[in-house]
Specification:
alpha+beta; GMP Synthetase, Chain A, domain 3; 3-stranded mixed β-sheet; 5 helices; 3 strands; 19% strand; globular
């Protein structure tokens, strides 16, 4: 259970990171990075950030690039939140693959769905 302070900082970090990623992905056509959720540790020193990346085929390469540039992203975040936070939390990025999981479940359900039977749709007498 998060405290009110953790929730406020999580929302602030999510909002500012979303803006940072929006600006950066505007330079690359066809790539979309969304900040799905942010969880801040109780001591407010670490923020676990879940990112949804589209297209998912490029997700690992984009995530490697984001992890490589984590210090620069954290610096940008610190500049954006310098009047709200004393210390910017350390950022730990994770891929949010929940949309891929939902698509996979939909495919499995569509495979198991019986074919349309026109005889079953006809009214019985």
């Amino acid at each position: 259970m998060d405290t009110t302070r953790q929730q406020k900082i999580s929302r602030l970090v999510q909002k500012e990171l979303s803006e940072i990623f929006r600006r950066e992905t505007a330079k690359t056509r066809g790539t979309l990075v969304t900040v799905s959720s942010v969880r801040v540790s109780p001591d407010l020193s670490v923020a676990n950030v879940r990112l949804s990346i589209f297209p998912s085929e490029n997700a690992q390469a984009i995530m490697d690039n984001i992890n490589h540039n984590e210090r620069g992203i954290r610096h940008q975040l610190a500049q954006q939140t310098r009047y709200q936070l004393r210390r910017c939390p350390e950022l730990k990025f994770h891929i949010d693959d929940s949309l891929d999981y939902i698509d996979h479940i939909d495919e499995l359900l569509a495979k198991d769905k019986p074919k349309d039977n026109p005889a079953a749709d006809a009214p019985s007498e």
